[in-house]
Amino acid sequence: MKLVISLSFVFCSLISYSQKNKKIKIKAGNWISELKLNENDVLPFNLVINNDLSFTVLNADEQIKLEKAVFKNDSVYLKFPYFNSELVFKIISKKELNGYWVNYNKGADYKIPCTSKRKDDVLFSQAKNEKANFNSNGKWQVEFEPNTPSSYPAVGLFSQEPGSNKVSGTFLTETGDYRFLAGNCVNDSLFLSCFDGSHAFLFKAAFKTDKLIGTFNSGTHWKSEWHGFKNEQFELASPEELTYLKEGTSINFSLKTIDGNAFSFPTEEYSNKVVIIQIMGTWCPNCLDETMYYKSLYDKYHEDGLEIISVCYEAGKTEENQIASIKRYKEQLGVDFNFIIGGGASKNKAANDFNMLNDIISFPTSIFIGRDGQVERVHTGFNGPGTGAYYTDYVRKTNSLIETLLSY
Question: What is the pTM of this model?
Answer without folding.
Answer: 0.92
